[in-house]
Design a protein that fits this description.
Pfam families: GreA_GreB, GreA_GreB_N. Keywords: Coiled coil, DNA-binding, Transcription, Transcription regulation. GO terms for molecular function: DNA binding; RNA polymerase binding. The chain has a 5-stranded mixed beta sheet with strand order 5-4-3-7-6. Helix 1 (about 10-40) runs antiparallel to helix 2. It has helices at about 10-40, 45-70, 125-130, and strands at about 5-10, 75, 90-95, 100-110, 120, 140-145, 145-155. The relative contact order is 0.16. It has 3 helices and 7 strands; from the N terminus they run βααββββαββ. The protein has 2 domains: about 5-75, Transcription elongation factor, GreA/GreB, N-terminal domain (Helix Hairpins, Orthogonal Bundle); about 80-155, Roll (Chitinase A, domain 3). The protein has about 160 residues and is of the alpha/beta class. The protein starts with a strand and ends with a strand. It is elongated. Strand 3 and strand 4 form a beta hairpin. The longest helix has 30 residues, at about 10-40.
């Protein structure tokens, strides 16, 4: 049995939408491309056919991966959380104690992480350093670039 992997409700919904799109729209489009390429004759030297088959393989692989992720997901509705401590699903505002730069991070599951959107994985060094802390606490994060220090400013859900 696969261990359960934490995932936000939003993250699970995004994966379900991608899965639905890949099973319906993308699959149909790829099948049509394969059929069209087959109509061109000799498949051994048909680049369009091979490209479409490669797309099909990638799409089916991604479908299998999405189904696996959703099957092992422990979906957590973060809107129902309320804690003074940092836990999975929290949105945490911190100040870098060296640069005085303020940043906000949303602690999410591994598959949802997107640093550009401020979403960090629960298994990242930053999130691991935050878990259990409260507003006003200092965080020490050991990362490949060295140790950094932050102060927790605000925790929201």
């Amino acid at each position: 049995m696969n261990p359960k992997v934490p995932m936000t409700l939003e993250g699970a919904q995004q994966l379900k939408e991608e899965l639905k799109r890949r099973k319906t729209t993308d699959r149909k489009r790829i099948i049509a491309a394969i059929e069209e390429a087959r109509a061109h004759g000799d498949l051994s030297e048909n680049a369009e056919y091979h490209a479409a088959k490669e797309q099909q393989s990638f799409n089916e692989g991604r479908i299998a991966k999405l189904e696996g992720m959703l099957a092992s997901a422990e979906v957590i509705d973060t809107s129902r959380l309320n804690s003074s401590r940092i836990v999975f699903g929290a949105k945490v505002t911190v100040i870098d104690e060296d640069t005085e730069e303020e940043s906000t991070y949303h602690i999410v599951g591994d598959e949802e992480a997107d640093l550009e959107k401020g979403k960090i994985s629960i298994s990242s060094p930053m999130a691991r350093g935050m878990i259990g802390k409260e507003a006003g606490d200092s965080i020490e994060v050991r990362a490949p670039g060295g140790t950094r220090h932050f102060e927790v400013v605000e925790i929201t859900f």
